[in-house]
Amino acid sequence: MTTMNTEYHTIDGATFSATDATDLMTQLRADSFNPEDDLPSYCRATARASKMQTGKPHRPWPPKALVEDMLSSGLIATGERHPEWGTSDH
Fold first, then answer.
1. Number of domains the chain contains
2. Under DSSP, is residue 26 helix (H, G, I), strand (E, B) or coil?
3. Residue 78: strand, helix, or coil
4. pTM over 0.90
5. What 3-state DSSP class applies to 73?
6. Cα gap 33→21, rounded to integer Å
7. What's the domain range around 71?
8. Which site from 40, 49, 62, 87 is most exposed, i.e. has the minimal number of CB atoms within 10 Å?
9. Distance CA 47, CA 1 (A)
10. Residue 58 lies in a domain
11. 83 Cβ contact list (under 8 Å, min separation 6)
12. Residue partners of 87: CB distance under 8 A and separation at least 6
C-alpha cells in the first residue's frame, strides 16, 4: 500500500511534504528555532502563537486538530499557496 503525502505551504514560504498531521508537526518542530521539549509542548506553543497571529483559537492536541485549525485560519495551505498570500514572484 502506498502512502500519499500532502504538500503544505507555510505563510513564510516553506513547503513540507507530510504523510499526516503528526508528520507535519514533527517536521515543523524539527525546523523550528524553538522546538520545545517534545511534540505536545511544541503543539501547545504553536497553538498559542497561532492564536496571537490570527485572533482565532487553535486546538493544541491532537496534531490533526491543530493542523485543521491552522488550515482554516490561513496559516498553512495545502496544494498551492494560499491566495491571500499573493504570489511568490517578486
1. 1
2. helix
3. strand
4. no
5. helix
6. 20
7. 1-17+38-77
8. 87
9. 33
10. yes
11. none
12. 81
